[in-house]
Hints:
This is RidA family protein. The protein is of the alpha+beta class and 122 residues long. 22% of the residues lie in helices and 30% in strands. The chain has helices at 44-61, 82-90; strands at residues 4-6, 21-24, 27-33, 69-76, 99-104, 114-121. Strands 1-2-3-6-4-5 form a six-stranded mixed sheet, covered by helices on one side. Strand 4, helix 2 (82-90) and strand 5 form a beta-alpha-beta unit. The two termini are 15 Å apart.
Amino acid sequence: MPKKIIFSDKAPAPIGPYSQAVQVNGTLYVSGQIAADVAGSGDIKAETGMVMQNIGHILGAAGLGFSNVVKSTIFLKNMDDFTSVNEVYGSFFTKDPPARETVQVARLPKDVNVEISVVAVE
């Protein structure tokens, strides 16, 4: 089956040679999203909220929503932010949250504090 590139002008444009999302065989693979606009503000909740909003815009461009997400990966610069990120992230998944892993990494693009990617199905 051919792949379909998904793009939302409401989410940040890719900063490298990748697509915001690719859809194939009813599955949407959303690239890691960051919130460079609020990075460095010290407000991890605001940063996480913006990341999740960006993901929502991309899901919407594919005709999907957060209820279609089956898997996510959270990359954190500091695992001490886990509880705050969870609080915001969880507000987007009020029923049947997806499978997930969360890992601490040494550094993220544009020196943000959190990056999240998701996989969704129709």
